[in-house]
Amino acid sequence: MTTPPVRPAAPGDADELLRLRVAVLDGARLTDAWRSTFRDDMRARLGTDPSLLAYVVPADEHTLASCALGIVYRGYLGPTHPTGLWGRIHTVATDPAHRRRGHARAVTTALIDALKAAGCGSIELRATEAGAPLYHALGFAPLDGYMALRPTPPGPRH
User: Fold this and answer.
1) What CA–CA distances, in Å, run from 94 to 16, 21, 71, 141?
2) 74 torsion bin: left (phi>0), alpha (psi -120 to 50), beta (else)
3) For the stretch 122-132, what's the b/e string if a residue is b when 16 or more beta carbons lie within 10 angstroms of its beta carbon?
4) Alpha carbon of 151 to those of 148, 154, 155: distances in Å?
5) Which residues sit opposite 13 in a β-bridge?
């Protein structure tokens, strides 16, 4: 299998990144405001914000086959974070018509390389059941004890 042509995402890819991102958010409540905020954020930051890294495989000149989006975060220095930087892969998505061709591996590998080049000493992600074999093959391992506190919607608390 030949390696798919991977390139950095550009502001003009925002609509397609939104389409692919929505496809992986099974069951999430997505409002028009969420969609426009995501798209506008991608248009504004891609290529100008060094903390937002994204790679794509084009399907043709207008659509994307696959994408991987990640963020560089600044924390504190420590043994596991010698640079104080760590990365998170937020989205890896491939259009169903283009799956099983190595696209997810290609964009994820490009993103990992970019996060490492940006100085990230650690990279994390949340794996779906379908994506876990790829991430294991790329060297990721489960880390027990991870928890999250998310904002709650306004309204009465019980």
Assistant:
1) 11, 9, 19, 22
2) beta
3) bbebeeeeebe
4) 10, 9, 12
5) none
15 burial via Cβ count (<10 Å: 0-12, 13-18, 19+) = middle
What six digits make up the tokens of 127?
A: 């794996």
Give the pLDDT confidence of 102-146 residue by residue, as tens digits: 999 999 999 999 999 999 988 999 998 889 999 999 999 988 777
Give the global pTM.
Answer: 0.89
Type of residue found at 10: A
Alpha carbon 43 to chain centroid, angstroms: 16
